[in-house]
Design goal:
heterodimer; A: about 300 residues; mainly alpha; 11 helices; globular; B: about 525 residues; alpha+beta; Beta Polymerase, domain 2; Cytochrome-c3 Hydrogenase, chain B; 3 domains; about 20% strand
């Protein structure tokens, strides 16, 4: 049920960010429901596959979508106590996302066009640097909660109450930077560009059409939502339902929707005021994310364990 | 104006090199001076011009009653010197060893006229595969209409080496732009070399011009490159008026300048926005697009066409603009809007980070290639016809010419920003002194005669050559500034990274249509 909600709601978040961005640029733009219309259009369209494509190319959309879906299932959305809670390990989430990305890059290279290969190589450059930062940020959290289980981490956070830990702050900053890079947003990648030579994520899915493209797009939106939920619930878990009864679920749902809307707003603002980075600035940017995460870990070890 | 103070020195220089000047004339393509030389001296002419520091500004072939003729335009200190020769079937030496940008115009002349050049790139340029090897569209009969075979085996230059790979881009691009093929040789993300393959929008302009009357030619010239319709039409009309020995009335000349400046502002606005968009700063794109749209709608109010197409006619202008009074308000309004936007652009670290140092064209290379317009001005080549060889009404209002040394994308954007302000001031003065009187004088077509039009379009210097025979147009050659900025782009992107190509390209914004003719 929760999973279905995330899957159904992911396009809305993407649409929301898009329409806020349009507003900030003084234009009307499409409504937040536009991604649903796009999905319907794409699912009804015929699939065209390049002659040089192998089975990898055909399978990748399903693999990417499923792995993202499974990763999403492991993250607590509205309530903490999920049936998937026992396996909802943060390492699983990171691993599933990496699997999806691996297939995405393979698919990009599979058709043999220059753009796909370029996109794949850039994506790998980014992810190779983003992953250590993600893990480092997460280790900081899990060390304080003494568990890599997301449910436990969120629960620990709740019992802690509103205590400002420097380690959390650093980890949060690190994770936000990583999330922007991983979901292909400005300043790392520009999801709205039409210029093939500058693309990262879009270049890999350039050859896709019809339902394959729909799944790829949907997976990307899911990933955006996943990172949103992760940041919202791990760092600001207040309002999340403790049990699975409908009342708590309803409140939890309303709270998470509000949190995501706020995060989407912040993303749209930052995308409006920033220009895209030069590609070789991205490693510096991700190093900064890694540095934040590392600082978080150090400050945890030095300040908080000793105390 | 220096009025050829340097010419005696140059001629003495040629004589020392034993180059025989067959004839000299100050009236052939006035105000330019013409020197007629022997075909075997063609190489020497180019070499000595280069050593003397003249800018190579264009070349075209022609065939009149006396046979084929090749004409090359050189410029120095705002004066135009024409070198011409009659090759009579002999091969001429290419000027490309001394003037690297000359190669494409020579290839164009070879493709369309069958003129032979020695030491020139053998590959077809404009013709692609539409004509057999021995047929040339401006000399022989046109082939029957039909499908043009693909130009798929065009031999691009390969760069050997480990890890070097090629990226083919185009001719069909994402977005609504013109077609052109770009072949990158890259290592990792660094561009080692770029080779352009153009000619996909060949329209047969030179063939279509033949046999037209002056009004028809002005309309055709307005369609050489849609975004420069005013400048090209003005250049063609100026050439025809010079051939006919006719002076358009003052009011027409003032209005022409007004239209040309409006075209400049509209295009610069669009370009600034597009440059920002290519580095992912969409905010600026939408703001500038909006301003440009408002501006072009005013054009429609004035004369009924958003781009002011067909408003310049031989002998004057076609329309008496309505609501001129509203323009002053427009200018004030635009200045205010731009002050705010320019502040944002200038004080934006992430934008500055992308634009500064990207796509550098060194002043030395710029001078070698002979680029004009904003590409030249950003690389220390401050040539501007409106100041350096002013034609009316600019002789009364010499504009400031921005000049920067950096030669990067930021400098090219900066030049555009400066030029908008300068154009707005200029238009205010033009409107203040707008003379009353006729819009046009009747144009009497000369039986024979030729003229050269030189106009500063928004991209840079436009040359337009028109020759009449039997009261009709016999030859028309418009030389767009893009003949030089396209080769400049190949230099600009070198050692940049592949994802920076779009913004480099946009900062140059050369015209495809203007060179594919």
């Amino acid at each position: 049920m929760q999973l279905a909600l995330v899957v159904a709601g992911a396009p809305l978040l993407a649409g929301w960010v898009k329409s806020v961005k349009a507003r900030l640029q003084n234009r009307r733009g499409p409504g937040p429901l536009q991604p649903y219309r796009d999905l319907r259009k794409l699912f009804m369209k015929q699939v065209l596959v390049a002659d040089s494509a192998s089975i990898v190319f055909r399978a990748a959309p399903y693999v990417v979508f499923t792995s993202t879906l499974l990763a999403t299932a492991a993250v607590p959305l509205a309530v903490r106590d999920l049936p998937t809670a026992p396996v909802a390990d943060i390492m699983v989430v990171v691993g599933l996302l990496a699997l999806g990305r691996f297939f995405l890059a393979l698919a990009g290279m599979d058709v043999g066009t220059a753009f796909g290969g370029m996109g794949a190589s850039r994506e790998m450059l980014i992810s190779a640097l983003a992953e250590p930062a993600t893990l480092m940020a997460i280790f900081t959290l899990t060390m304080s909660a003494h568990s890599t289980n997301l449910s436990t981490v969120v629960g620990f956070q709740l019992t802690q109450g509103l205590v400002l830990h420097p380690s959390y702050l650093f980890a949060l900053m690190g994770l936000v930077l990583v999330a922007v890079a991983e979901t292909g947003r400005i300043p790392v990648d520009n999801p709205a560009t039409h210029l093939e030579l500058t693309m990262v994520h879009e270049a890999m899915i350039l050859e896709y059409s019809g339902r394959h493209l729909a799944l790829m797009e949907w997976a990307a939106w899911l990933k955006l939502t996943l990172y949103g939920v992760l940041i919202a619930n791990v760092f600001f878990p207040w309002g999340i339902g403790e049990t699975t009864d409908p009342g708590a679920f309803g409140i939890g749902l309303a709270v998470i929707v509000a949190k995501l809307a706020l995060l989407g707003l912040a993303l749209a603002v930052s995308e409006t005021v920033l220009a895209k980075m030069r590609l070789f600035r991205v490693p510096q940017y991700l190093n900064l994310a890694f540095l934040f995460a590392l600082l978080g870990m150090l400050s945890f070890l030095i300040l908080e364990v000793a105390a | 104006m220096t009025n050829f103070a340097w010419l005696p020195a140059f001629k003495a220089h040629l004589e020392r090199e034993h180059l025989l000047i067959r004839g000299e004339s100050g009236t052939c393509l006035a105000p330019a001076r013409c020197l007629e030389i022997d075909p075997e001296d063609w190489a020497k002419g180019g070499a000595e011009a280069a050593r003397f520091g003249l800018r190579w500004a264009g070349l075209w072939a022609d065939r009149d009653a006396l046979g084929e003729r090749c004409t090359c335009v050189l410029e120095n200190a705002g004066d135009y010197l024409i070198l011409s020769t009659r090759p009579d079937g002999e091969a001429l030496a290419s000027h490309s060893p001394w003037y690297p940008a000359a190669g494409r115009l020579e290839r164009h002349a070879r493709d369309l006229f069958g003129l032979r050049f020695e030491g020139l790139d053998e590959r077809r340029w404009t013709r692609h595969q539409a004509w057999p090897e021995d047929r040339h569209p401006l000399v022989d009969a046109l082939p029957a209409p039909g499908e043009t075979p693909p130009d798929g085996d065009y031999p691009f230059a390969h760069i050997p080496g480990e890890g070097v790979y090629e990226i083919p881009v185009g001719p069909v691009h994402a977005g609504i732009i013109e077609p052109g093929h770009f072949r990158f040789n890259a290592v990792g993300e660094t561009i080692l070399g770029l080779e352009e393959r153009l000619g996909y929008v060949h329209k047969g302009i030179e063939h279509l011009a033949r046999g037209r009357d002056p009004a028809g030619l002005a309309r055709l010239a307005g369609r050489v490159s849609g975004d420069s319709t005013v400048a090209h039409a003005w250049a063609a009309c100026q050439a025809m008026e010079r051939a006919a020995g006719l002076t358009p009335p003052a009011r027409a000349v003032w209005l022409r300048a007004l239209f040309a400046e409006r075209e400049r502002v509209a295009n610069h606005l669009g370009d600034i926005g597009a440059i920002c968009n290519d580095v992912g700063f969409a905010f600026a794109q939408y703001q500038f697009q909006r301003l440009r749209e408002v501006w072009t709608r005013r054009n429609a109010d004035l004369c009924g066409h958003r781009l002011l197409m067909d408003q310049i006619v031989p002998g004057g202008v076609a329309c008496e603009p309505e609501a001129l009074a509203a323009l002053e308000y427009d200018h004030r309004h635009l200045r205010k809007a731009l002050a705010g936007l320019f502040d944002i652009l200038e004080d934006h670290p992430s934008l500055r980070d992308r634009l500064q140092g990207t796509g550098r064209l060194s002043p030395l290379t710029a001078a070698e290639l002979g680029v004009t317009g904003y590409v030249g001005k950003a690389s220390d080549q401050a040539f501007d016809l409106r100041r350096d060889d002013p034609y009316p009404p600019y002789d009364r209002y010499p504009p400031d010419v921005p000049r920067y040394q950096a030669g990067d994308v930021a400098a090219r954007m900066r030049v555009r920003m400066d030029e908008i302000g300068i154009s707005l001031d200029l238009m205010d003065r033009l409107l203040g002194d707008l003379p009353k009187g006729d819009l046009a004088v009747p144009f009497t077509t000369p039986e024979e005669g030729e003229g050269l039009g030189c106009i500063e379009g928004w991209r840079g210097e436009i040359l337009s050559h028109v020759r009449f025979a039997h009261g009709r147009v016999a030859r028309f050659f418009p030389r767009d500034p893009s003949w030089f900025t396209w080769p400049a782009l190949e230099h600009i992107v070198q050692d940049n990274i592949v994802p920076d190509f779009p913004v480099c390209n946009k900062s140059v914004n050369a015209s495809y249509s203007g060179v594919d003719l």
